[in-house]
């Protein structure tokens, strides 16, 4: 049986020696990272791969950069296109790879860009600036700041997480005309500061990571994304909540476990997803690093990594779900200012 190969694309800030996207082969037998190459991109802060597995897209200072994924996993630049706004911080694609959607932290803009048949980024088909002011009881900047974008499981709607307005704005997507239209708004608690959002595998639950509230909000929704109901809100930390800022969020492929990284306290928390969509904590522990900006579950779900931004490293951990603990696996991989990662299975 042919061994499945995985490539890890790691985006890094480029104000130092790093040039952009670090390309690694993921050694699944040892859960190690073997560096293959480095691809120049100006400050890649978010990465995604087309569902057809042929192209990778990255946020860049200039907009969105498109790359062809070669048979060995290396990247070949196709083009870079502007988004119509300031520098983005999040991106996603629809299931049929027709469009790239970009979220802008600095200007609160959601942009929709066409993807051409050759994988290149085409024209901007739509763009909406979020407007208004949030209500802040802390020193958080409460102007519009889109920190995440993701598609609903049925691909009908785009969800734009706005940290400044304490909202998740739901847009209906018109694929034929390349337009997005506001459909509904999920209004979170005052000063919740939502940062990330993922959907459960049951198709009816969504999990929103709230930085200032230091919690995961669990929403139950219907297929029309109308009146999403707050089912529960679960803390991501059991001590020092004033020092904690949850940053990273990921879910296993089978949807059974939810992973969170907490900056400030420098911990990782793992939760079990119950049949009713609620979550219960399995374990929480220090990750022996500074500012775990990203947490990512590896393909077999028994291992995960944290990208420790201030310590310039990626650390791998082995998870023991039955006994409720995780342990570091091997030595950290030194990477300058890592801030995003995408694990891609070679075809």
Automatic annotation (TrEMBL):
Pfam families: Lactonase. GO terms for cellular component: cytosol. SUPFAM superfamilies: C-terminal (heme d1) domain of cytochrome cd1-nitrite reductase. GO terms for molecular function: 6-phosphogluconolactonase activity. It comes from the Bacteria. Belongs to the cycloisomerase 2 family. This is 6-phosphogluconolactonase. The lineage of its organism: Bacteria, Bacillati, Bacillota, Clostridia, Eubacteriales.
